């Protein structure tokens, strides 16, 4: 099945909101945080459509969190001073279209359209803890996973973080995001 990914525009805003409402409120029984009226420089909102019908089936936002020390501290993230930081958030896929690698397509497109061209040094996201250990996101995109689990309005989550300046992964980079994880990672090596 062909999936098309594009930025949310005025004609697709309502569809993106419906997808989020169905997934977060109806299915998961939780609220999605308000992203506010972020400008095009502060956020990119994407929508995925079924190629043959044009039906919107998924959405993802990537939002700049540079300088949001309280948000980063809440999830024990430690970035270099003045580093540009982006967060992938509100990934929602309709149940009928799960298992088609749509999250992977959305993250890839968000990196291509926003994270890389805007010069972000770090990116991060929250992943449901129940699926974190079996997820291929860390492997596919070079994210490092925190060993800590956090309680949020969306449930229990793990944090994934990535140094956008590196192609590979290294134990030293884990310690820059999650200081307490460095010794754990070294003991596994």
Question: Would you kindly provide a written description of the structure presented here, covering whatever features stand out?
Answer:
The protein has about 190 residues and is α+β, with helices and mostly antiparallel strands. The chain has a single domain, classed as Aminopeptidase. Helices cover about 30% and strands about 30% of the residues. It is built from seven helices and eight strands; from the N terminus they run E-H-E-E-H-E-H-E-H-H-E-E-E-H-H. Strands 1, 2, 3, 4, 5, 6, 7 and 8 form an eight-stranded mixed β-sheet that branches. A hairpin with a 2-residue loop joins strand 7 and strand 8. Helix 6 packs antiparallel against helix 7 (about 180-189). It is globular, with a radius of gyration of 16 Å.
Shape: globular
Q: CATH class, please?
A: Alpha Beta
* Count of the domains: 1
Number of helices in the DSSP assignment: 7
Mean pLDDT: 83
Cα-atom radius of gyration: 16 Å
Strand tally is 8
Uncertain spans, ≥5 residues at pLDDT below 50?
168-176, 178-189
CATH architecture: 3-Layer(aba) Sandwich
Query: Oligomeric status of the shown chains?
Result: single chain
If you consult CATH, what is the topology? Aminopeptidase
Order of helices and strands: EHEEHEHEHHEEEHH
């Amino acid at each position: 099945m062909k999936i098309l990914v594009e930025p949310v525009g005025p004609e697709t805003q309502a569809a993106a909101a419906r997808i989020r409402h169905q997934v977060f409120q109806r299915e998961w029984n939780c609220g999605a945080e308000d992203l506010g009226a972020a400008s095009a420089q502060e956020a990119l909102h994407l929508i995925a459509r079924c190629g043959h019908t044009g039906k919107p089936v998924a959405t993802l936002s990537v939002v700049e969190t540079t300088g949001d020390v309280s948000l980063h501290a809440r999830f024990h993230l430690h970035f270099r001073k003045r580093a540009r930081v982006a967060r992938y958030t509100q990934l929602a896929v309709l149940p009928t279209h799960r298992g088609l690698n749509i999250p992977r397509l959305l993250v890839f497109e968000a990196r291509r359209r926003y994270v890389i061209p805007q010069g972000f040094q770090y990116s991060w996201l929250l992943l449901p803890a129940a699926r974190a250990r079996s997820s291929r996101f860390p492997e596919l995109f070079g994210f490092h996973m925190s060993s800590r689990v956090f309680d949020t309005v969306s449930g229990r989550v793990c944090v994934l973080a990535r140094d956008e300046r590196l192609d590979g992964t290294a134990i030293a980079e884990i310690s820059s995001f999650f200081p307490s994880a460095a010794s754990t990672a070294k003991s596994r090596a």
